[in-house]
Request: fold
Amino acid sequence: MRDYYSAHTLNPPSALEAELIALGLYDYEYKEKTLGSGVITSFIRIKIPIDDSRLPDILGLKQKYQLLGTYYTEFDDDDYADATWLEAEIVSWIGYPKPENSWQEVTYDLTHPDYCRKCGAGFVQINPFRFAKSHERGKTIHFCQPGWVYDALFVRSRVKDELTTQGIKSIDFLPAIEAGSKKSFEDVIQILFGHVMGPALLNTEDFPSEVCTQCQRRKWVPMKRVNRFNRTSFSDQLDMVLTHEWFGSGALAYRKILVSRRFAELLQERRWRGLRLRPIVLE
Ligand SMILES: [Zn+2]
Reply:
């Protein structure tokens, strides 16, 4: 794996390109497009490994030319082969929780002392999620998540059965409910995570963060950069867990979902769709 810094902008001034050339950075991405109106727009993306000695220069150009920049990690096949735990990210959605204006009040205990209305951290789920009867979901999708919610996963009943048969640990299941009724969906089943980890995120300096002025908790702004965790927080008795740390910004807060290699292999073997995994590093 390797960490990179990437910066981009629309319609870069030619002076920016001249500065990149002066730095010996020739392999930046540059595209031009002619719009219907005949106007030409252009786009530039600069990518540099963070251990490249020119990184401070690029950060300077980012400032000078108001570029949008981000740090991220690229993984190779060996990283996946070596990973003992991975981070799960959903790539398939199932509409929005119902009722649209009060789903949080209905689903969570918002009077719980851990919950903070300002930053959104600390919600405790006490009821099943509700979805419209005609919720949208791809026919071949196995894992999905509702909009606005980042740390609840839903699966089909055959995935639930398989996870149970294969002995995937530290989870339970709860069917979602058809909005406006008390009827459970047969094929929309939430995975409940039975284990929230203790504080374990190590590379905290790699992520911007916000401290809530109300509850004083810190939230990490999620970036596509590898997360490093304390190895002692993981055990063979766990397969799917939530991080202690909260991620998000503004009023959004969620815990990340981490999964074991055992789960990752099952996902791959069964060719289940809807979930993307990225290695994390245990130290
Ligand atoms: Zn707060």
